[in-house]
Design a protein that fits this description.
four-stranded mixed sheet; alpha+beta; single chain; 3 domains; elongated; about 25% strand; six-stranded antiparallel sheet
Length: about 300
């Protein structure tokens, strides 16, 4: 079950002539000095019934409506933020209502114009990688978010990467791991917006936990151990999987863990209580060889919390 929030409306430049036609009779929601929750509910319930005639539309609560499509997928539309938006910007009510409805539908209705994510693909393919801030900055620099010349297609939207900071210079970036490509997840895709960033992170980390369960450990001597996943592209991504490190810490008697990740393929850990191991990890971290350097710093994990060690 997913929730759509009003903050997404500003991200959607869609127009929807079919829904515009429904409002030609100047529905009271467009002209009333103040919009009530009942007005929002009644307007959307009627519009959804017309728009999705073959879908099951039902009340979840006074401020929520559930849409269940024929393929079994469903979404819960949260109306509270929309109500606040409609009262804050009376002149833009039609546009905001259109954007809300189009956002709910676009992942299913526009697939013929361009490949858009499906709910099933989001659940299956969304993963998390750990890279450094420079990597994310380069991704952002290579994105052209200028709209196409002339009328923008319905499916066009600016690209937005979904990321989350880790300590130091590390960052978690959500990606789509398809059979032949690993590509950034566009957080502005209609289906990604329907899920929302928090749910996307939950899905990505759940998928990474499955991969981390198959991790192998390679002894490097001196009490140091290297973590290996099935695909070395994701080795550094175990830094995003809290349950992996929590379990590892318990298995090691509760001692805090220090990690060096000089490249995305090399994740080496040892005990934070052993100075010789920490010194060895510092030497490893400073290697950061090309072509895929990650970090020259050390990171300490202790009972669910990451921190960067002083150099």
């Amino acid at each position: 079950m997913r929730t759509i929030f009003a903050s997404f409306f500003f991200l959607c430049g869609f127009t929807c002539s079919a829904i515009n036609a429904q409002a030609q009779d100047a529905d009271p929601i467009l002209t009333a000095p103040h919009v009530s929750m009942q007005m929002v509910h009644d307007y959307l319930f009627s519009a959804l019934k017309k728009r999705f005639a073959t879908s099951d539309i039902k009340d979840v609560a006074g401020d929520k409506i559930e849409v269940r499509w024929p393929d079994g997928a469903s979404v819960t539309l949260e109306l509270t933020n929309l109500l606040e938006l409609l009262n804050a910007e009376p002149a833009a009510r039609q546009e905001d209502l259109d954007s809300f409805l189009t956002l709910a539908a676009s992942g299913y209705e526009q697939a013929s114009e361009v490949h858009l994510l499906s709910a099933e693909e989001v659940g299956r393919s969304t993963v998390a990688i750990v890279r450094n801030q420079s990597y994310l900055d380069e991704m952002l620099a290579n994105v052209d978010n200028n709209p196409p010349e002339g009328p923008a297609p319905l499916w066009w939207h600016p690209t937005r990467f979904v990321s989350r900071k880790l300590p130091g210079d590390l960052v978690i970036i959500l990606m789509l791991d398809r059979p032949t490509t690993l590509s950034p997840l566009d957080g502005n895709e209609p289906m990604a917006l329907i899920f929302g960033d928090e749910e996307l992170f939950r899905i990505a980390l759940a998928n990474m936990r499955e991969r981390a369960r198959r991790a192998r450990f390679e002894s490097m001597g001196g009490g140091l151990t290297r973590v290996l996943l099935d695909d070395e592209t994701f080795n550094s991504s175990v830094l995003a999987v809290d349950s992996f490190w929590w379990k590892l810490q318990q298995q090691r008697g509760g001692d805090a863990i220090v990690v060096a990740a000089p490249t995305r393929a090399d994740v080496v850990f040892g005990s934070a209580d052993q100075s010789d191991q920490v010194d060895a990890l510092r030497r490893i971290a400073r290697m950061s060889p090309a072509p895929y350097p990650l970090s020259r710093h050390l990171y300490k994990y202790d009972n669910g919390s990451w921190s960067q060690l002083a150099d």
